[in-house]
Sequence to fold (221 residues):
Amino acid sequence: MKITRLGHATVLIEGSKTILIDPFITDNPKAARQIDEIPKIDYILVTHDHFDHFGEDALQIAKRDGSTLFAVHEVTVRDDVSQAGITAVGANIGGTYSEDGISFSITPAIHSAGGGTPSGFVIHLDGKNIYQSGDTALFSDMKLIPKLFGDIDVALLPIGGHYTMDEKGAALAVEYLNPKVTIPIHYDTWPPVEADTSLFAKQADSHTEVHILEPGQTYDC
Ligand code: NI
Ligand code: MN
Fold:
């Protein structure tokens, strides 16, 4: 399986299915690829409706590829989603959607949103558990996530601060989650979310293997 950080919180997962999380490409100053450089996507997962996670890019790719959009219910019943004529599956915090041997569970996030509750996901694909926390502050119930879903192979956690947890918060999250590998996201896109990746690595690396991915870089697992 290949996990590629396309910039900001946009992550491409390529295994037996392709998954794109929080596509933010067109207006992303750090986007590593343009939309036409992104492979055919089976599932688009959206953590919440802020512009740096959800917008026209998601709808455009879903229309192009016939992708299924998966998110908290309120995101999937927006007018622009309905009018796009795409397949959208909504669920809610604590729920799991399974299809074709792959499953997506929705986890809580402490954040805000225009509509619907902000969320994270545990993705089960090809025998691996990938946790994407979404934009969130640190919360101690993260320790329940591996208990509920099994060991986390890869955690994708924001470290940028200002809108989410920072390096220190994310390092504490790693203690709760115990993931084999952690890839930081949601940093260095704009000045307010500048982060010190080496500080995060130093604070987290006794609990996890930290992989820093510049936009466009891939981790093979
Ligand atoms: Ni947000
Ligand atoms: Mn954000």
